[in-house]
Amino acid sequence: MKILIATDTYPKQLNGVSRVLDKTESELSARGHEVKIVSADDFTNFPWPGYKEIKIAVFPARKAARIIEQFSPDAIHIMSEGPVGWAVRGYCIRNNLRFTTSWLSRLSEYVSIRYKIPLKWLHGLLRRFHNAAAQTMVTTAGMTAEARALGIARVTRWRRGVELDKFRPVETTLFQGLTRPIMLNVGRVAVEKSLEKFLSLELAGTKVIVGDGPQLKALKRKFPEVLYLGVKEGEELTECYSAADVFVFPSLTDTFGLVNLESLACGLPVAAYPVTGPKDIIGDAPVGALDSNLQVAIEKALLLDRADCVAHARTYSWDLATEDFISNLVPVSVVEALPVDG
Hints:
By secondary structure, the chain is an alpha/beta fold. The protein has helices at 16-30, 61-71, 83-94, 107-115, 119-130, 141-150, 195-199, 216-222, 234-243, 258-265, 278-282, 294-301, 306-313, 318-328; strands at residues 2-6, 34-38, 45-48, 51-57, 75-78, 100-102, 135-138, 155-157, 182-186, 206-210, 227-230, 246-249, 270-272, 288-290.
C-alpha cells in the first residue's frame, strides 16, 4: 500500500510519539509498503512558545492538499490533533476520503494546564476531530475506556513494542561512585511530567534525570543535588537504564510511556502512580510497583527481580504492533460519506 501518515510531531523529535512513528515507518517499509510522512517540517513553521523542540505549522491546508494529491495514497492516518492533523482531516472530509486517527497523547490536558483553557472545551474539539475518522487507534485497554467515556465513537487498539536489540541489560560502570540507589527518569523535562513530585521526595540515594525540555533550568535551580545528564540516545541511553536501580515515572498524564518498556527491557523495575499507561504496561506482573504514594512505590520496586523485568518486556513486539496498525487502516475510497460530528 501507499500509506500517508500526518503528524504534528515531526519525526526526529525526541518523544514517545516520534519514536513510535520512526519505528512504524521502518517496519512498514520492510514489509514493502510505501510510506509518506507529512509533518510540520513540510510547511512554514515556528517553535511552540516554551517548547522550542515542537514545531507548529502555519496555514498548512493548501500545501497538504497538494502533497496528498501528488502521493495519491491508498490509506491515510493522522497521528496528532495539531494544525497538520486538522489540515489533512479537512482535506479528507471535503473530498469524501476515509481516514484513521490516533489518540496518543493528552494534548488537551497539556494545553489546559499551560494556557488555562477549560478542559471541557478542549475535549469537545477532541471528540470532533476523532469522530470524523473511520477508526481511532489507542494504545491500551485503559485508553480505550477513556476514549469511549469522552464520546469518541469508533475505537480500536494499536499496541506498542520495544526494540529488544537496542534496549537490553549491559555491563556498565556509568554510575560507579554515586550513592545508591540510583533513581532514574528519562523523558521530556516539562511540567506535565510531574517531575517535581519525584525530585521533592526525601530519599537516600541519587536521583538522575535524562532528557531536556522547558522545565530543565527551573528544576536545576530548585533541585541542584540531582544529576542532570541531558539527552542520551543509543548505547548511552541503554547504559543509563542498565546502571540504575529503579526507573521512576511520576507522570499522571501520559497515555502509555514508552520509556517504561525501555527500562524494563534493560532489567530496570518501574515505580509509578497507578494511572493509565503504567497500569496497562505493568498490570499484575512483578516488574514494577504502583502506588499513590510515589515513595512507597520506589521502595517496593527496588526489591524486584531484574530478570522478571526483561522477560516481561520481551512480550511486547514491534512486529505485532505493526500488524495492528496495518489491520486498522481503511481504504481511502468510500461508497457513502461517514457522519461527521460537528
